[in-house]
Amino acid sequence: MTATLTVTEPGRVDALVAAAMPELSRAFVQKLLEEGRVSCRGKPVKKSFRPAPGDELTLDIPEPEKLEVTAEEIPLDVVYEDGDVIVVNKPKGMVVHPAPGHADGTLVNALLAHCGEELSGINGVLRPGIVHRIDKDTSGLLIAAKNDAAHRSLAAQLSAHTLSRTYECVVMGNLREDSGTVDAPIGRHPTDRKRMCVTEKNSKPAVTHWQVLERFPGFTYVQCRLETGRTHQIRVHMAHIGHPILGDTVYGAKKPVPGLEGQCLHARKLRFLHPADGRPVEVECPLPEYFLEVLAKLRRSGGA
After folding, report:
1. pLDDT by residue (tens digit) across 228-259?
2. Mean pLDDT, the chain, as a whole number?
């Protein structure tokens, strides 16, 4: 595939391409440069090259390597299911769809075994049925579509903010108010392509509504409702207001919490309009054991 982009500001070519094409990682862009696949004025350039504003860059992007996705008999906690949709309670530690480094053991592998051919094909062979995602170390509810019509309906509801998603988490520190809203755009981090951040540059609007459920010395148990659905949204927003999620070593303290793998964040409730007849469907799942243990420890000792 060939892609072209026009330079609008000065800078190194690797940084400019990565910023203009956030779907490409910085490492992937540098690999393209090393292989001579990025050209300016008809000649391949190195990563240190600094094009002038107005220059046109041409990228020769190779086709991605195809991954074989196979069905795997992995137990699923199915919360709701009918002929159009399936809602599962994803455990902490499970990756949603196959990717390099995670070719199997994913939720998609399990869904293929459970649903067979009954998954939408809109997102391709690697993400059949997947309408939205939750992070590997976030537990809780995720909805998948069994056909393309259902997928289109649910995707439209995500865009229109009528598919409601409510999470619960434990954050560091004590929130001053009992409830509030974080309205701050989120985009790719300028130097770490694996992270997101609050930024005005190459970002999308992001809104999170939060409410305090319980307070502890140095910690707060919080409910968060997504109005938008950006990558890592709750984790980025809570860190942005000075209250990163407990156990989040990407956006909070770098030192892991003993006994807690990843962030203490659970997708608790889902509400959507059924794709077939428009009736409201609301599903909820209980807090997982790891989350209950964190709360029990905080209630006993007042600290984590």
Report:
1. 999 999 999 999 999 999 999 999 999 989 88
2. 91
Instruction: Name the nearest CA neighbour of 274 among 173, 149, 179, 188.
Output: 149
Tell me, which fold does domain 2-60 have in CATH?
3.10.290
Record: fold of 161-304 = Pseudouridine synthase (3.30.2350)
> pLDDT below 70 — which residues of the chain?
22-23, 25, 64-67, 302-304
Beta strand 265-273 pairing with 139-145: parallel
Nearest to 245 by CA among 268, 270, 269, 223: 223
Tokens 């440069």 belong to 33
Where along the chain do the CATH 3.30.2350.10 domains lie? 65-160, 161-304
Half-sphere exposure of 6 (CA within 13 A, CB side): 2
Packing angle, helices 26-34 and 13-20, rounded to 10: 130
What would you report as the CA-atom Rg of the chain, rounded to the nearest whole angstrom?
21
Which residue in this structure is represented by tokens 């059949």?
Answer: 128
CA–CA separation, 29 vs 22, rounded Å?
10
- pLDDT tens digits for 141-156? 999 999 999 999 999 9
- Supply the residues annotated as catalytic: 135
